[in-house]
Amino acid sequence: MARSFSSLFFKAAKKITKLQRAALRMAAPKAARKRTAKARKSAAEATRAAKAIKAAKVAAAAAVAPPLGLGRWEASRQFVDGSGRRLAFSRYTPESAPGAGMPLVVMLHGCRQTSAAFARGSRMNQWADAGGFMVLYPQQSMTRQVQRCWRWFQPDDDHGGAEADLIAALIRSEVVRHGLDPERVYVAGLSAGAGMAALVALRHPGLVAAVAMHSGPVVGDAHSAAAGIATMRRGSVKPIVPLLESVADPAVFRLGMPALILQGLLDPAVAPRNARQLFEQFRAVNNPNPEALPVERVLGLGTEKAYRRVDILRGRKTVLRLCEIARVEHAWSGGDESVRYHSRSGPDASALVWRFFQGQRRVGAAQAAGDEAAAG
Fold it and tell me: Where are the bilayer-spanning segments (predicted)?
């Protein structure tokens, strides 16, 4: 009986020991899982905190850092025309600026951009330092268009046309105020800014010596926001020269309008067909001879800066140039890729723009400006 009781006791003790060991084995992974989960949570929180700190530093730097350049940057200025319409703009004056007679380059940003972002991303101020020209950066108001898009897609006198005229009034005011060279006034833009640059140049051909359009839509096809999106995606399905005539001052066909067109061939927002149609529109403006043969070259072949260049010449002077850039999407070519809508790939678009502008002059612009002032 004692042996039987003893046997039962040891069996029970052995079983309890097994159960305890099993419980310990089950508890250990659970505790380890808790520790691992806690560690992961702490690591995730630390990562989020680090990202927040980094984002705050980037935002703070962007808020206080001036656009590239050694000269004077004047932000958030306001222009008011004779009708009381307002236009915000920034101004860049190169460090070695002469007292008077500087050229002027007007840079028009794209949708969801600001004048400061466009200045940083395009690095045009560096070229202003090298070339000795002033740069103006008009900025679209969010009260006019919530995404800061210039309204090229509504080219009538009450919308896009009015914006083009307001920009032209700003240009005239700045030329007089700073004693700039009225024969060397140039307008360039990206995307929606390219569409507006075209409108400014075509509506005011006596003011603008040349225009540059990067990733821009064909002129005159769209007359609403929805139509603008369709134009960007496929270009125009209409005869393109009459479209231009519908929005341009007729004097442009007499005066001409030298134009540079730049387009990324990987652009998902503005179809490259737009650039080719723009080329044909400005070809009609600058060289009505349809038999004039274009001069083609491929530059930077085999590199990330590769592009195809097509020129139309009048005599020995290039009056129209198309640059189709192989490895660029919807962005300013060769810019600061840390700024949205600017790409490191491709040739330096700001360099191409300024070099093209250097060869253009609006002869007689000073006299035209004087006549206009006298008439006013």
Answer: none
The dihedral formed by the CA atoms of 148, 150, 155 and 159, expressed in degrees to the nearest 10: 50
pLDDT at position 58 is 42
- The string of DSSP letters for 254-302 reads HH---EEEEEETT-SSS-THHHHHHHHHHHHHH---TTPPPEEEEESTT
Q: When comparing pLDDT for 25 and 211, which is higher? A: 211
| pTM for the model | 0.81
Question: What per-residue confidence (pLDDT) applies to 374?
Answer: 46
Distances (CA, A) of 329 to 119, 123, 184, 215: 19, 18, 31, 9
Decide the pairing of beta strands 86-93 and 104-108.
Answer: unpaired
User: Could you read off the pLDDT of 43-78 as tens digits, one per residue?
Assistant: 667 667 665 664 454 444 444 445 688 999 999 899
Do 208 and 368 meet the contact criterion of CB atoms below 8 Å apart?
no
CB count, 10 Å around CB of 205? 24
Are 303 and 240 in contact by the 8 Å Cβ rule? The answer is: no
Burial of 33 (0-12, 13-18, 19+ CB in 10 A): exposed
Residues 194-211 have pLDDT tens digits of: 999 999 999 999 999 999
Alpha-carbon separation of residue 19 from 5, 11, 349 (angstroms): 21, 12, 76
